[in-house]
Amino acid sequence: MTDISQMPDAAPTTKPKGGSLFEKDARTKRRNAAESRFKMYGIAAIGIGLLMLIVLVTNIVTAGTGAFQQSFLALNVELKADKLDKKGNRNIEDIKKVSTFGYAPLIASALESEVEKLGIQTDLKPKEMGKILSKAAQAELRNYVIANPDEIGKTVSFRFLVNSRVDGYMKGRVTRESIANDKSISVEQLDFVDQLRDAGVLYKAFNPDFIFGADASDQRPEAAGIGVSMLGSLFMMLVVLALALPIGVAASIYLEEFAPQNRLTDIIEVNISNLAAVPSIVFGILGLAVFINYMHLPTSAPLVGGLVLTLMTLPTIIISTRASLKAVPPSIRDAALGVGASKMQAVFHHVLPLAAPGILTGTIIGLAQALGETAPLLLIGMVGFIASNPPDGIVAGFLSPNSAMPAQIYEWSKRADPAFYERAWGGIIILLIFLVTMNTIAVLLRRRFERRW
Amino acid sequence: MNDMTRVERTVDSKAIKIAANNVQVYYGDTHAIKDVDVQIEDKTVTAFIGPSGCGKSTFLRCLNRMNDTIDICRVEGDILLDGEDIYDKRVDPVQLRAKVGMVFQKPNPFPKSIYDNVAYGPRIHGLAKSKSELDDIVEKSLRRAAIWDEVKDRLDAPGTGLSGGQQQRLCIARAVATEPEVLLMDEPCSALDPIATAQVEELIDELRSRYSVVIVTHSMQQAARVSQKTAFFHLGNLVEFGETGQIFTNPEDPRTESYITGRIG
Ligand SMILES: Nc1ncnc2c1ncn2[C@@H]1O[C@H](COP(=O)(O)OP(=O)(O)OP(=O)(O)O)[C@@H](O)[C@H]1O
Ligand SMILES: [Mg+2]
């Protein structure tokens, strides 16, 4: 027992053995060099990844934002009663007899009087002037008149879509040089468009119909929208959610909490992991064989698409659910059993609530995967179907033919007119917004509920 | 060991609550409990002591069939509770565990409110007919576990937010809330500081008036302080079982003596 106060004030210090700590020896230098080299590799890898992401996003945004804007022509159209309702009795059946062609003269004369009013000089005949408008304009006018027969005889202001070439010209995609061999538009028409634009009646504006509208045929890219296929995707997701979540969770709970550990459950486990790695097109062909050829469910229907995607999503949900059940500490189960809860009570009162955020996260990620899946839809005919009418009612939503967002995008990207190409990019933006939102929700859920015990 | 004189020794023998005869436990091929015979008396604290890995927890978990949850575990022999074989086919382990409660080594409150932790057992067993009755049970149990004063103002706070010692007493409150007849405790104080340990020990001594308590402990002093009967396990065998006073002052088996004097274990 030495008393500290008796120690000499300035005890001699020992000398460092080997080298000083202030100088790095060769070994340390080598190790440090290796470490900083490794850090550089890592930073470079992340840099490349980020660069790719930035290129991808800017590419998509520059190519796709155009789809959300469309060029419109403002026109005041006189709904001439002698053309639309010859008998003058406002009978809806008689009005419906006038085909879309019957509306063309109305638009042409409206355009003519507009030109006169604005004092625009042009050599174009009224019929050629009318060609700058979309073919959808006549149909739009007809739908309006059928919906509002009382307006016949009055003059109503409209905002008509212009055709895709003119729209492309407004967006800079189409130039005077590029239309040299194009029969559907002439340089004179472009001059005319310039004049209308300068007068302020032809302008670009946000086009909600792209988001909410239906697909259109090859001749009318300017009228095509992704809305109906979005509904198709929605109905498919409802099917996936309603089937995959309960089946997946029930299967996982049984396997994780109740099933005995034996050869059979091992085999099942391995096969579930294998299923998660099966290419989605295989599920597509299975769906074609079972749901359509054998069970005779309707082709192209979201119900069938949903069933196929359910098969594809189940393994993902089962795997993530089992992982989150496993993450619940066994002491919680012991605690519940220890106060006399049955196994089922222990699972449903204690384990499941703790695993729920993980289960939801897995489900959302599975749904997001399913939402972006295209290949299996190819085989059950949801690609190539022109979704031109929104389904009327819930049942039709599940059973009538429809497309899905990724299928619609694929379809647009195949079509010849470059205006469709723009819409494909626009569709990708919408799809990505959905996926990013879903994944963000999943991440937030996981953050919010992480480790509560 | 002066503490040993603190608890009055009850020499008169009481009714037998649990009788284990010829119990063997296997984990797969491992023979973890060999041929154990033990009588656990009613309204008595019985301590299980022995070196690590000797099978104390294993045997304790046999008494309320918690071993059923381990797939590879196999129990042979009979264990009678009130003269009825708890491993009989007709016995539902869930019903058994309501009678034989358990407190675990690591405090494991549910990640729910303090109130819900205690109320859970009575709820699933339908012990309370009304909310106020349930409130009474919760308060009584928390009082019995000597934690009422600390938590009475925050019954809605999560049980996991309490300190380790408070959590363990909460778990004890949760166990007594279902009115068990036997309370099994596996090293209930191993995560606690001396003050909390003293509180739990006091509590165990009080619980003795109503239940029969079986406690596994690594602390000789604790066994001596709280128990009336002591069982010494070694390598899966029950080496010696008897009055605590006798085991600690005058053990019959040399292995017991070496263990309690600190030479093996
Ligand atoms: N789940 C299990 N699976 C396989 N073997 C086990 C299992 N639990 C315990 N054992 C074995 O059974 C024997 C007894 O274990 P037990 O946990 O009962 O010991 P213990 O006396 O409680 O030890 P400690 O004092 O360290 O808690 C040990 O050899 C252990 O390896
Ligand atoms: Mg133990």
From TrEMBL, chain A:
One of its GO terms (molecular function) is phosphate transmembrane transporter activity. It comes from Ruegeria atlantica. It holds the Pfam family BPD_transp_1. The chain crosses the membrane at residues 40-61, 230-255, 275-297, 303-325, 346-368, 424-445. PANTHER family: PHOSPHATE TRANSPORT SYSTEM PERMEASE PROTEIN PSTA, PHOSPHATE TRANSPORT SYSTEM PERMEASE PROTEIN PSTA-RELATED. Residues 230-442 form the ABC transmembrane type-1 domain. InterPro entries: DUF3333, MetI-like, MetI-like_sf, Phosphate_PstA. GO terms for biological process: phosphate ion transmembrane transport. One of its GO terms (cellular component) is plasma membrane. Belongs to the binding-protein-dependent transport system permease family. CysTW subfamily. Residues 1-26 are annotated as: Disordered. It is a multi-pass membrane protein. Its main location: membrane. The gene is pstA. NCBIfam families: 3a0107s02c. This is Phosphate transport system permease protein PstA. Keywords: Cell membrane, Membrane, Transmembrane, Transmembrane helix, Transport. It is found in: Cell inner membrane; Cell membrane.
Automatic annotation (TrEMBL), chain B:
It is found in: Cell inner membrane. GO terms for biological process: phosphate ion transmembrane transport. InterPro entries: AAA+_ATPase, ABC_transporter-like_ATP-bd, ABC_transporter-like_CS, P-loop_NTPase, PstB-like. The keyword Transport applies. One of its GO terms (molecular function) is phosphate transmembrane transporter activity. It is a peripheral membrane protein. The keyword Ligase does not apply. Its EC number is 3.6.3.27. Its main location: membrane. Keywords: ATP-binding, Cell membrane, Hydrolase, Membrane, Nucleotide-binding, Phosphate transport, Translocase, Transport. Residues 18-260 form the ABC transporter domain. One of its GO terms (cellular component) is plasma membrane. Part of the ABC transporter complex PstSACB involved in phosphate import. Responsible for energy coupling to the transport system. PANTHER family: ABC TRANSPORTER I FAMILY MEMBER 17. This is Phosphate import ATP-binding protein PstB. It comes from Ruegeria atlantica. The lineage of its organism: Bacteria, Pseudomonadati, Pseudomonadota, Alphaproteobacteria, Rhodobacterales. The gene is pstB.
